[in-house]
Amino acid sequence: MTDRALAVVRAGALTTVQDLGRPGHAHLGVPRSGALDGPAADLVNRLVGNPPGAAVLETTVNGCAVRPRSTVTIAVAGAHCRVTVDGRPVPWGAPVRVPAGALLDVGPAVSGVRAYVGLSGGIAVEPVLGSRSTDLLSGLGPAPLTDGTVLPLGRPSGVHARVDVTPQPAPPAELVLRVTLGPRDDWFTPEAVGAFVSRAYRVSAAGNRIGLRTEGPALERARHGELPSEGMVLGAVQVPPDGRPVVFLADHPTTGGYPVIAVVRAADLPAAAQAVPGTPVRFVAVRRR
């Protein structure tokens, strides 16, 4: 077996392989997928000298631990966490050399939710429809990591960045999501639409890579009939029967039958990936372009 590989010692709550995703396949029923916090994934790739599309590890809440079979350069960004190599603390947000056989431990998130681990050469699992991303909804791509999983690594193609540490945005104290109302805002009463863009919500602990669920005022419908299933897009804010908005993230379904009251600007979605349960959420209406 090649020495360009990585053995998983501790998989954590949910650690997946992610890259830029597989856009353009919604007509086949395939979601985009890809890293939820795209800027963090891009950063770790830059830090270790990878091209932007290289596959990284995305951890959730409690990190992971891995053991490379050859010397690699790694970088961890996204959620703030303690990073160690064989028990020795190393910098977060900076390139670090990890010798062959050493244990890289990415600890629990101190703030934020998802940490990203870039490795020189990238994770080299076989692409599916042009992407190495794990898609929790469709099951495409590699399965979520389990203890004992061995992942192949690619050959390094660049020189790692010469930096001590890289500034990154902190997880949001308040998640502000700019939205364009529609296409089904007319399925809700004017009072409900007003509440949606003026009242405070909170991030629910029930969210995942498919969608960010919220807790707060239930939105009352003006129409109570059945809506035929229709196409869904990244950032769509769907309102299920309980009336609490759900923001669709990277692994969202490509169709759905609950009304979409609004769509979140794509630039605001990376912050949603790092919003811990209980974070206040505010939806701000912007004009249609």
Spell out the key features of this protein.
seven-stranded mixed barrel; mainly beta; 32% strand; elongated; nine-stranded antiparallel sheet; 289 residues
Q: Would you kindly provide a written description of the structure presented here, covering whatever features stand out?
A:
It comes from Streptomyces violaceus. This is Biotin-dependent carboxyltransferase family protein. Residues 27-289 form the Carboxyltransferase domain. The protein has three helices and 18 strands. The longest helix is centred in the first third of the chain and has 11 residues, at 38-48. The model has no long low-confidence stretch (mean pLDDT 95). Helix content is 8%, strand content 32%. The chain has helices at 38-48, 190-196, 269-273; strands at residues 5-10, 16-18, 56-58, 64-68, 72-85, 88-90, 96-98, 104-119, 150-152, 175-181, 201-203, 211-215, 230-231, 236-238, 246-248, 255-256, 260-264, 280-285. The protein has 289 residues and is mostly beta strands.
Compact summary:
By secondary structure, this protein is mostly beta strands.
Order of helices and strands: EEHEEEEEEEEHEEEEEEEHE
For the report, how would you describe the main beta sheet?
Answer: 9 strands, antiparallel
Uncertain segments? none
Q: How many helices in DSSP terms?
A: 3
Mean pLDDT: 95
Keywords: ATP-binding, Hydrolase, Nucleotide-binding
Organism: Streptomyces violaceus
Protein name: Biotin-dependent carboxyltransferase family protein
